Amino acid sequence: MFSYFPYAAAFIDSDPEEVRIDPGLVGIALVVAPFVFVVVGLVSRNPLAPKRVLLSMGLLLALGLSFGLVSPVLGASAGFGVGVALCLRLPDIPDQMRRRLVAVALAVAYTALLLFVAPPAGVLTGAIVPILMIGFADEYGAWRRAQRMKQGGSPPGAGT
To answer: Which of 10, 32, 83, 139 counts the most CB atoms within 10 A of its CB?
Structure first.
């Protein structure tokens, strides 16, 4: 969120007729983004943190530019969501990265809907919801694994 809000603020204008982007705020956001991914990777004790941080930065730029054509806030939301999903250490649950990416995609779709219906709510939602959905995806994966263990006795992907 520390890098998201300066990026979102760079594209918000008080005058809707004149389109102006604040390059200083975009620069601050791009400088802070690697530190956000590094902190997420190191705090979660991800052994692949350096590689994932570089991949996350590349995806932040790619997704930020492609989704940013629709709305810059939507691009930042997608880029940060996918970046955090990659940098955060994966639990020992099969198909968990897929669940995380689906959760981020649903969060970005919800953010897009809110950006077009209620823009101020969409800006705030774009910063918070993708990262929360990653946590929900992890909890759902753990719950589903526990349910399968209770019913069948062996976890999915354990040689069955």
So the answer is: 83
